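Q: I'm writing up a methods section and want to include an example of the input and output format. Could you take the sequence below and give the corresponding predicted structure tokens, formatted cleanly so I can copy it straight into the document?
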Amino acid sequence: MSFLFKDIRFFRVFVLLFIMNSICITFSMFYDYGKYFDSYWFYSFAYRESFFILSYGLLFFIIYHLRLRLIQNFLLGLVLVLSLIAFLVNIFLLYNFKSNLSSYLFSFALDTNSRESVEFLPNYLSMPLLLICLALLVLFAFLYLKLKPLSVNKRLLNSVFVLALIAMVFIHIFRLRPVDERWSDVLYNAYNSFNKAFHTIAAVKDYKQSNAVLKEVADNLKNLNPPTKPKKHIKNVVVVVGESAQRSYLQSYGYELNSTPLLSKRLEQSPENTFLFDNVISAKVSTSDSLSLALTFANMENKALWYKSLNFIDLFSLLDYDSYVFSNQENVGVFAVAHV
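A: Here is the clean output for your methods example:
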């Protein structure tokens, strides 16, 4: 890795990126992760700095060995310009909101129109902020022009880099990475924030569309004549869906350990009222996709959309049952409770 110190192009870009990211990491640790300044705080800070050095060292190693100077200059310039833009955005956010760029802020920005942006920016582009940005840009330009290549021991530097890489791999294998670590460079954080924001907006849009269809289905159900009520109306019906249960580990399906004592006892005492299915497979791999077919009249054969099909819960509501749904599969909470 000695080229980072001997090739003036790589050395200058690497130093500037390190300074930019160190500033953002310092303030993100200061504002977002609490002002504890204990050993764990400094360990997390050192981890993020080390991860940046290793990741960008490897990135520049790849760029350096492309050998074509024109491509090297283009890629170095691209990384520097994009990082500088992300850095200035983070400075703006840190100064005004004491927060780095995040998916929430990106969501707000993507959901904002040009008129709102014009009204928003003048309220936060203050003179002190502009002077800070200008001073930083002048500092970066000065360093870029004045930095000179350093003479280093190639073997020693490569050995240190390899040992640091092994240490980082060891940290990840044995899960010693700091819990509060989120990102180590502004460029990755910007990409990650945009990616999460884009998926969030897409999910909200999809939710609104499916919710409109569900409302239409619910309105249609109200106009249906309810099915003929059974003569013997069962007072309470409880349906339990076991998450990630494997039949090969259930005693009722032949497992040697007593893993289903109550079900096995019921099979012996009341076989006429107990049904054990042994010819059923899941329609999908994931829980949500599988249950969307298992609990509705949509299936793999009719190709119907689950949210346009009558579901198990609404069916009981049509039979005058007061229905409740308890779930731990909610995307935005620990659990969800719905009353139908």
